[in-house]
Every structure is written in structure tokens, then in C-alpha cells.
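Our consortium's second objective concerns turning raw sequence data into structural hypotheses that experimental partners can test. To show how far this objective has progressed, the report includes one record in full. It was chosen at random from the queue rather than selected for favorable results. The single chain below, 181 residues long, was entered without modification.
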Amino acid sequence: MIKSVRNVFILSCLLLISMVTYSAVKTPSEVTFDGEVYKQAFQDGDGVKTNRVTEYLKKGENLNTYVKIVAIWEYPGVTDVKAFAGDLIKTHKQNYPSLGRSIIVKDDGSEAQVDYIIAEGDITEFNIFRLIKRDGHVVAYQYVYRNYSALNTSDNTKWWNNLKQNKNKWAELMTQVNYVK
């Protein structure tokens, strides 16, 4: 009797461990977006009990001065893609009421795309997200295009022109992004 109880306990522990191990999505060591290769530069969180972010940079860039970054966010406690997308937009609207944003949600609520611009000092960012549900929770793919130029400079004008030229292409590419299976 004691032996069978111990065996059931051991099997239960192994099952629990395997469930925890497989509930976090597997993130790759490198990703490609818009024909450019990004290698993993940072990861925080476990994707099981806490949110996890994995950030990817192009060769020669760092987390303090990047121009482009790709990230995979995992939210194990969040299951509603549509509500999460709405919360992103609501938060952006509160923090940056005069800056642009958009949201597109599939009719069935299984996927969404959100983009917005943020500005803090001389840093301006265009952010675009593809939100999907994987392994029972929300996973967000993010692409950021950042500018460090002060307003009314030629570098700032170049950045805005490049954003206008590429925004629709990046939105289309984002619908195809699927870094985790």
C-alpha cells in the first residue's frame, strides 16, 4: 500500500513538473524581421508564474541605444487577446493622449494587432504588436523602431519619413510573425 501511494505521488510530481515545463513557450535564440536578423540579448521572467520578455537586437546594437528591437512577451495570467489589446490602447491613450495608435482585432478575438507611438524627451518610438494565444495564454510579438533625434532636426525628419514609408509593410509582416510554436 505504501509503495503504491509513493508511486502515485512520484507520478503526480512528474506530471506536474512536465506541465510546468511545457506551459512556457519556447523562444528561439534568433529571429528575423523585415529581412534583418536579431539575436537574443535579454530575457527576464519565467513565462509560467511571471510574465516573460525576450528581447532581440541586431549585431552592433545594445539595449541602451538600439534603433530596432524585436521582443517576445509572454503573459501566463492573461487569456483574453481582445481585452489585452484594449488595455494596451487604453494605457497608451492615458499616457500619450496626443499620439497616434491603432488596433485591429480578428472577429473571433483570437488575434490582434496594436501599434502606437510614444515620445519621452528626445526619444520617439513606433511600436507594433501581434497578440496571439499560445498554450492557453497571451503571447505578444513586438517590433520597435526608435529615434533619438530632437524635434526639428534632419535626422528626426528622416526617421518620420522612414516610418511613413515602412509602417504598412511592417504591419503586414507582423501578421505573419510566428516565432514560437
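The partners drew two points from this record. The mean pLDDT is 86. The CA atoms of residues 10 and 131 lie 37 Å apart. Both points have been shared with the crystallography group to help prioritize constructs.
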